[in-house]
Amino acid sequence: MGASGSDMNHETPVLGTPGAWTLPASILAGSVIVSVFMPVFALVSLAALVWLISIHRWRRGQLIESVGFNGALREELGSVRELVRLLGAVIDAADVPIVSTDESGVIVQANRAAQSILGSGRTLIGDHFDELITQREVQELERLGRNGESGHARLDLPVKGSIRVFDAAVDPIVTTGGAVCTFTDITELMQSVELKADFAANASHELRTPIASIKGAIETLGGAAKDDPVMRDKLITMIGSNATRLDLMVKDLLDLSKLESDRVPTALSVIDAHEFVNRVCVPFAPVCSRKGLEIRTEIDDRAMLIETDPILLELILRNLVENATKFARDGTAVRVQIERQRVGIDPEAPPPAGLAHPDGISLRVKDKGVGIPLAHQSRIFERFYQVDEARSGSSAKRGTGLGLAIVKHAARTLGGSVGVESVHGQGTTMVVNLPRCVPEDQGTSGGVGAVEAV
Q1: What digits encode the pLDDT tens for the residues 219-258?
Q2: Are 123 and 106 part of one and the same domain?
Q3: In this structure, are 295 and 414 located in the same domain?
Q4: For strand 333-341 and strand 294-300, is the pairing parallel, antiparallel, or unpaired?
Q5: Range of the domain at 66
Q6: Alpha helices in 94-170 (DSSP H)
Q7: Considering only CA atoms, which of 30, 24, 59, 54 is closest in space to residue 42?
Q8: Is residue 5 part of a domain?
Q9: Spatial CB neighbours of 386, under 8 Å, sequence gap ≥ 6
């Protein structure tokens, strides 16, 4: 009855609680005092002392365990933070745009590529995904991702002035209810697929024409023309002409296939420019004689020697001279010019290893012919492309349509480039620039030697 409310609510400390030492300490102190008068209480003091020592050891072990646990926890937390930082750095360094959204479609993370390519440099965090991507199919894909479904969609975006094709892949983030969207640039892949489809269609068309002519001639020889010597000779000539065209086309296709494989081995050697040009031009003597053409060679005195792959350079020069003699007007001159000059390096198509000279050459083949209309000049290096009206109006002038494509790839293999300068109705100049192929100390006059090749 005399106990207060606070005394009634007081709970006696037990072993394991922070205040467990107060009771044995009190007993120990009281027992020591009483033992002065009653020695039996010395035993109580000893028991209280053992009690205190037990509590001390327990508290000490608990403290050591707590310190160790906290240290391990801090170490693990530091590892997690480092892993998160590393993962964020990896995602940020990826050249593929990556965007993640929360459960409401708001962008919560975007790497540098996403900010540069999709956001034109601005920070995307906080924007709604539908404001960034307006294509409905991709928007729907992102919503499905937030609902737990993965998927892909094609996305066309303007990037730096051109339309790029992306494969948009969306996957759900289960823990947050959001989605992660990855945009992979597949423009080159799509172009490659289209080129292969176009190549197959064009090759089939180009092969079908001479094969049909040969089949028709053979059928006629076995029928109405069997006993007609004049018609028989005409059909045999037709078969031979179309067979030659098929043979040329197969050779050109093989050359082009090797050049496009990016695995063309180059065998460098130093060649004499005059001797090389004259040798390449010799097979064109018949057509020059028939049309009254003259091939003039003009070579810079400082570029008499050229270090290059003779086979690739011959492919370039032979195809350019063939086109020039084919389309030049009768009685005119075809000029082959080689000039020493500095040529820039394309990082995506460097010259072959071993070429380290400071200067290169500019190879020009000029004709005075019908020229190439401006609208067609950007396409003449495509496979099988021919400017029918201006350049190949007759069957005698029609080639395989692969020559300039071969020139482009051969020049690129040598680290160079090819271009065209043409005025419709006046003539055409084909220009091939090849870097680092002119050895030093070949004279300083800069003069030009002129030699008639044909």
Answers
A1: 888 887 778 888 888 888 889 888 887 887 788 777 777 7
A2: yes
A3: yes
A4: parallel
A5: 15-93
A6: 112-113, 129-132, 136-146
A7: 30
A8: no
A9: 392, 398, 399, 401
Q: Are residues 387 and 434 in the same domain?
A: yes
Which of 77, 93, 109 corresponds to the end of one domain? 93
Element of type H or E holding 81: helix 41-93
pLDDT digits (tens, 9 = 90+) for 396-450: 455 677 889 999 999 999 999 999 999 988 999 999 999 999 998 776 555 555 4
Residue 401 CA, distance from chain mean position: 27
* The overall pTM is greater than 0.85: no
| Pairing label, strands 269-272, 305-308 | antiparallel
Residues shown for the chain: 454
Helix (H, G, I), strand (E, B) or coil at 102: coil
281-314: burial string, b at 16+ Cβ within 10 Å, e else: beebeeebeeeebebebbbbebbbebbbbbebbb
95 in helix, strand or coil?
coil
**How far apart (Å, rounded) are the C-alpha atoms in residues 349 and 439?**
21
Q: CA–CA separation, 437 vs 303, rounded Å? A: 9
